[in-house]
Amino acid sequence: MRIHRLAGAVALALSLAACGTSQSATGTTAGTTAGTTAAESADTVLKIGASPVPHGEILDFVKQNLAPAAGLKLEIVEFTDYVQPNVQLDEGQLTANFFQHKPYLDDFNASKGTKLSFVTPVHLEPLGLYSKKITSLPALASGATVAVPNDATNLGRALKLLADNGVIKLKDGAGTAATERDVVENSKNLQFKPLEAAQLPRSLEDVDAAVINGNYALEAGLKPATQALVLEKTEGNPYVNGLVVQAGHEKDAGIVTLGKLLQDQKVKDFIKQKYEGSVIPAE
User: Fold this and answer.
1) How far is residue 3's CA from residue 151's CA, in Å, rounded to a whole number?
2) 229-282 pLDDT, tens per residue?
3) CB contact at 8 A, 201 and 222
4) Which positions make up the signal peptide (predicted)?
């Protein structure tokens, strides 16, 4: 009888010991998992709105090659228009966006009452005049229809491109806010057709020529450096695209870090090699 009781006691002790070991192991595993999760979440996550080309491609290069070592995780949200990236940034759905130049941002803030801030210049996409019907600017016929961007700053930019190349003349002081009303000489009697910027590449089938923003030209498979009839000059050009945040967040650690990465020499080299002069790194 004593032998049976002793055997039972030994079995119970062994069972309890086994449970303790199992609980200890489980606790260790849970602790390790929790520690790993905490370590993983230590990276700063930034949700960035961007045009697919070249902005999204540039961000993806940073995401794959530079961000991990800097403790950043980038979530890239692509947009095909120029309005929603600012609307969603203003609403707090995005950490930042990367698709626009400062003159456009200034006009957007003024017209929409938003408070968004341009923080880091990254690159320039020269605006160009394209055509499927002519191969040189002098061949642009009298009465030709030219499609132009319909947003205020890019319309003024398009008209300036035509003026700089002697196609039209603008009144003195028209600047980046120029509209058709500021055209004082139009010897070829060109007809301007304002369209949403994203529609301009498709309009080439229907118009004689179109002034197209660099990102939409690239998305449409055009090569600005070689296919544009005329291309914007880069010297003194105010239309550098850059990183934009809500006002008050310019000094956030993650934004400062991302800004530095976007201006890294490796990013400049990537832009030069990939876009072959159609996109130009900011200096």
Assistant:
1) 95
2) 999 988 889 999 999 999 999 999 999 999 999 999 999 999 999 999 999 999
3) yes
4) 1-24
